[in-house]
Amino acid sequence: MDYETVIGLEVHAQLLTNTKIFCSCSTEFGAPPNTHVCPVCLGMPGVLPVLNRKVVDYTILMALATNCTIAPESRFARKNYFYPDLPKGYQISQYELPIAEHGRLLIEVNNHKKRIGITRIHMEEDAGKLIHHPRRPVSMVDFNRTGVPLIEIVSEPDISTPEEAGAYLRQLRAILRYLEICDGNMEEGSFRCDANVSVRPAGTDTFGTRTELKNMNSFKHVENALSYEIHRQKELVEDGMQVVQETRLWDPEKGVTVSMRGKEEAHDYRYFPDPNLVPLVIDKEWVEEIRSGLPELPDARKARFIADYGLPSYDAEVLTDSRPLADYFEECVKHFPEPKTVSNWVMVSLLAVLKGENKTIEESPISSERLAELLRLIDSGLISGKIAKTVFEEMASTGKAPETIVREKGLIQITDTDAIADVVRQVLADHAKEVSDYKAGKTKLFGFFVGQVMKATGGKANPKMVNEILKGMLR
Ligand code: ADP
Ligand code: MG
Ligand code: ZN
Prior knowledge:
With 475 residues, the chain is of the alpha+beta class. 39% of the residues lie in helices and 20% in strands. It contains 15 helices and 16 strands. It has helices at residues 53-65, 162-178, 219-238, 284-291, 298-309, 313-319, 323-335, 339-357, 368-379, 385-398, 402-408, 417-430, 432-439, 446-456, 463-473, and strands at 3-14, 69-70, 73-74, 77-80, 90-93, 100-109, 112-125, 129-132, 139-142, 149-155, 191-201, 211-214, 246-251, 256-262, 272-273, 280-281. Strand 13 (246-251) and strand 14 (256-262) form a beta hairpin. The longest helix has 20 residues, at 219-238. It starts with a strand and ends with a helix. The mean pLDDT is 94.
């Protein structure tokens, strides 16, 4: 039997505000434990939370960017559970009346566009962090993260494959980063995803029983965990058994999901409206003010890169992945208006260097202007494309200007016909046997002669001229 997969994702994104959601403590990461705390975020009796307006601004931005409807009135609710990292015994979240609903996101997988519905976006506070002692049976708790603002973005069960899940997450993260409201760092946990997945016989319309997957801190983990889980569920169903509704943890080492807690152990959160927080009223003016600050989003920028620069879809996708990368590309094209050439150098050479040195585009050792200078040197024929690669490496490691490197290292291309002819003559004289083989029909040797000439000139001979002169002399 054929099966189809149903996936719905819940994403938690940490907002980049300076202060926490209900108090003025700093949200700065990495401070000594329990130094960014106050009676409010420690949940002392009698304190009152005060909503951070910036959190609402950021949430409205995300809601608009994902085509959600913004509720004129929404509510905060208490989600009750006991855990040592939750000092109040409840988390302030939103429940029946979230700030935003009914959005959508457009993803693209294998040149196929698909709309993924967004059920809701709501605001909530983060919990603290437990640190377990490596040897002793002791756990410590750090409340610095308690009250750091999060938004939870819940998708409709519209996702059908692990690849689509990956595309959805990448798109969501790209938007958050374009809006500059979340750093999207999955390893540090500022962008976390829980994946709900079920299978059902193809063509049927009731959902199968789902499991919820946790503990995936990279896009690859999410895709791998889903693939494993889909396989596991199909096998169960095929063997006439039932999928149990439960939460499962991804084990990246073993490449399997393992049961964490079943439905019986599921929490009853006893949600109720938080009596300490008044309903949140958002008027049209507020929404419009935020809308006017929306930047060009990744999808729009990608479309513009294809239309205005004539780039292939793949290039446009890679280059618009982050705002600074897209800015770098556009800056470079301003100085050297051949978009496809710029794209190739950025995508192949520059991104490889950045990856190798674990740097962001903002930390690039080669500025967009310097890269344009290099491309001009190739364009003018001063250096060959091959030499340019060497110059590029040198620019990356020394930060020097391309002209300086070319002059210092004597890398200027040899375009003097006589000089090249001399070298060609010498190469042919040194390889008399190959020459006679060539003349006897072994034409494949042509490449060998080109190689020898390039070697003798340290790669500096103009390749086109070498070809022409060689052809003439071998006739
Ligand atoms: P909970 O709060 O218990 O996690 P929700 O109703 O908020 O439950 O749903 C969470 C996510 O699970 C949503 O993204 C939704 O699209 C998805 N989902 C719901 N039912 C299924 C199912 N049968 N198979 C796969 N995903 C599902
Ligand atoms: Mg859930
Ligand atoms: Zn505080």
